[in-house]
Amino acid sequence: MASVSLQKLDKSYGAVQIVRGIDLEIADGELVVLVGPSGCGKSTTLRMVAGLESVTDGTIRIGNRVVNALPPRERDIAMVFQDYALYPHKTVAENMGFSLKVRGVDKAEAERRIQDAARMLGIAHLLDRRPGQLSGGQRQRVAMGRAIVRRPQVFLFDEPLSNLDAKLRGEVRTEIKRLHQAIGTTIIYVTHDQVEAMTLADRIVILKGGDIEQVGTPDEVYNRPASVFVGGFIGSPAMNFAKARAEGDRLAFAGGNSLPLAARLEEGREVIVGIRPEHFLNTADASSTLAVAAQVIEPLGSDTLVHFALGEAVMTARMPPTIRLEPGQVFQVGVDPTKIHLFDASTEKAIL
Ligand SMILES: Nc1ncnc2c1ncn2[C@@H]1O[C@H](COP(=O)(O)OP(=O)(O)O)[C@@H](O)[C@H]1O
Ligand SMILES: [Mg+2]
């Protein structure tokens, strides 16, 4: 196992800078998830760690070694991709053992590692099959098995679940977490899926346009988003945003609604207010309320999503399933003032 350190990491293709001075210290044994929208530089960053892509500027360390100039095979990492390209004519066991054979690992030792990994992944009964005889989820487990048997210092995962359907994705995700708990190897995991990031990560790195927007535990990025971008990216349904102005000790929205202001703000300051759908309340449980008109009501069984306008914004509230509303009906929705997020209207950064 090893720590991974990225210092001022840059990547440009010609004149286009893709990764912009990323600084990140990953502890030995940590599971860090790089998350962000498509094209923000996640794969490029991971591929630089793997040695599949050259570094334009900056330093990558694995353990205490600077690896910038080392070819992939000397970095002691194993990578699992979305496209897991197994050898179709080899059995599962042969696929898993191939890299060990190439590296001259003793046959009995290789056999032991394959059996261990297969048991851990629940594919021990599939070792004699060929990839064509496996389901997508099973193939992805074989791809993980192939990485595990190498006992690398660091695992690199690039969207390994993207080709699986929703149910399988959840299952294999749980498996990856169990695996990490069992073997404790450092993992850098890339995904565009914030649920995957939240459920798996010790720490989440949110990337935007090749730059780090925030690094924190799932709890930190959910409860203390550093920007409108992070607030909107983490959480589902997404955080609601509405413009407001500080007026005395209240936040005033267009259209006459207002909420008490917990922080002191300069009179007249324009802010963006962020409220998560799950932080709207029944009026009986709330010290503050907004008078709004229901637009669309979506029962989910466990909860009901209610969409309504606040100023110029459309908000979504996650309400108890017992709520009874008609489209167009004006109702009072409660808000917990301590759960409101405030962002500067021009920088879109959190106001602390
Ligand atoms: N070989 C390349 N040449 C030029 N541009 C590239 C190359 N590889 C990736 N890019 C660009 O770099 C950006 C980041 O890509 P990538 O790291 O794959 O994003 P992500 O994995 O976050 O979706 C994208 O805009 C992509 O088009
Ligand atoms: Mg990618």
Key phrases:
352 residues; alpha+beta; Rossmann fold; OB fold (Dihydrolipoamide Acetyltransferase, E2P); 2 domains; 6-stranded mixed β-sheet; 5-stranded antiparallel β-sheet; 8 helices; binds adenosine-5'-diphosphate; binds magnesium ion
Helix-strand string? EEEHEEEHHHEHEHEEHHEEEEEEEEEE
CATH class value of the largest domain? Alpha Beta
Number of strands: 20
CATH-assigned fold name of the largest domain:
Rossmann fold
Please tell me the overall pLDDT.
Answer: 95
- Characterize the main sheet: 6 strands, mixed
Which parts are unreliable, with pLDDT below 50 for 5 consecutive residues or more? none
How many angstroms does the end-to-end distance come to? 37 Å
Hey, roughly how much beta strand do the residues contain?
25-35%
Number of helices: 8
Shape category: elongated
Description of the molecule:
The protein is an alpha+beta fold. The protein has two domains: 4-232, Rossmann fold, CATH 3.40.50; 237-344, OB fold (Dihydrolipoamide Acetyltransferase, E2P) (Beta Barrel), CATH 2.40.50.140. The chain has helices spanning 42-50, 92-102, 107-121, 136-148, 166-183, 194-200, 218-223, 228-233; strands at 4-13, 16-26, 31-35, 57-62, 65-66, 77-81, 154-158, 186-191, 203-208, 211-216, 240-247, 250-252, 258-260, 270-275, 280-281, 288-299, 304-310, 313-319, 330-335, 341-344. Helix 2 (92-102) packs parallel to helix 4 and helix 3 crosses helix 4. The mean pLDDT is 95. Bound molecules: adenosine-5'-diphosphate and magnesium ion. The site of adenosine-5'-diphosphate has 10 residues, from helix 1.
